[in-house]
Design brief:
Blueprint lengths: L7 E3 L5 E3 L12 E2 L4 E7 L3 E13 L2 E11 L4 E10 L5 E7 L3 E8 L7 E10 L7
Antiparallel strand pairs: 1-2, 3-10, 4-9, 5-6, 5-10, 6-7, 8-9
Length: about 130
């Protein structure tokens, strides 16, 4: 029988401790990359910052992983790619748009890689102060 306490316990400073060098794995659901494909959308007032890991898979010879961070204001957002690794070619470009309602993280396939599949994980950080325009 599966017992969650075999894998997790409370760590220092109320963190979640993964026992026995455990790890997490991810497998979709995947989406395909075209032009300005939406990775994620969230309400601008919910989170002020977020971090994403995006895994892109075109075929056996073309794979890429990107780590990026996003900071959001009322009508401005900034995206920084902080890490990127691939098997020889960048497969996609990332961008972020914001209006006074929501934020979109977008992915666009580079020439020759339309239809590549991607999955992602995210960590969100809530606003500590209300957004005002």
């Amino acid at each position: 029988m599966f017992n969650i306490t075999n894998y997790f316990r409370e760590g220092i400073k109320k963190t979640l401790l993964v026992r026995n060098n455990g790890a997490s794995s991810h497998n979709g659901p995947w989406k395909q990359v075209y032009t300005n494909t939406q990775v994620e959308r969230w309400h601008a007032g919910e989170f002020s910052t977020a971090e994403f890991t995006i895994s892109i898979d075109y075929d056996n010879a073309n794979k890429e992983i990107i780590k990026c961070i996003v900071a959001v204001g009322v009508d401005y957002a900034n995206l920084s790619v902080v890490g990127r690794s691939n098997l020889s070619n960048d497969l996609v470009d990332l961008s972020v748009t914001v209006n006074q309602s929501y934020v979109d993280l977008l992915i666009t396939a580079k020439t020759g890689y339309t239809g590549a599949k991607f999955i992602y994980t995210a960590n969100y950080f809530q606003n500590q102060n209300p957004l005002t325009s």
